[in-house]
Amino acid sequence: xxxxxxxxxxxxxxxxxxxxxxxxxxxxxxxxxxxxxxxxxxxxxxxxxxxxxxxxxxxxxxxxxxxxxxxxxxxxxxxxxxxxxxxxxxxxxxxxxxxxxxxxxxxxxxxxxxxxxxxxxxxxxxxxxxxxxxxxxxxxxxxxxxxxxxxxxxxxxxxxxxxxxxxxxxxxxxxxxxxxxxxxxxxxxxxxxxxxxxxxxxxxxxxxxxxxxxxxxxxxxxxxxxxxxxxxxxxxxxxxxxxxxxxxxxxxxxxxxxxxxxxxxxxxxxxxxxxxxxxxxxxxxxxxxxxxxxxxxxxxxxxxx
Length: 305
Known about the structure:
mainly alpha, globular, disordered C terminus
């Protein structure tokens, strides 16, 4: 008796049709979860005493670190709240890859979990591509365009390229879906991103006018930098190169070219992340007083610190 459709979906069967169906299901699920979570996080943040410096630092980081400039501060804040929700999605996807990384001989169960872990990322990104495209094309009116400045669209294009182009064909390939480097890359780009991202968001809340606040800021900047350099720099380059060579070994020109394009886009995104975190680390290492910390975040006045 052939397995039911539900079983085939739950086990993330290595077939193109099942993987495409799962991609759509994950896209719908994580779009609903992230948008609702962001709308619930925002009121809580607005009620906190650190909200002004949080907004100032977040806006400065987007402008200086990534060239993203919003005309409306509320649109910027909405994006940051969405990022906080997305980081939790990243953690979920990354943790689903852990059993496959720990297993000496991966079973069908841990391989299925890892496949779903990668689909978590790819699904959310597919939903985000739809949101960004409809916004840029004006299908959601002037508001949609205002929420998608050029810098943001270019950055997300680099970020989304690898998962959107590679997860479905990787999961549908009976050999590549069991590859440990595939599972590790998915873990690095998701779970480690959660650590780096939330370390930075936590730093946005800290009062650098106090000795304790400055000390915690240095720690948060260090954790954010270390996570980014390890997962999106050193280890990423090693694992991505080995995985791409295995993709090339399948003799599928489409997969090889798609993988090269996706990894190139993610490499550019990773470079932007590492430059931003390194810049902040260097500046905070050189800060010798609370007052000196004021210059690290451009555009944030002393009273918002």
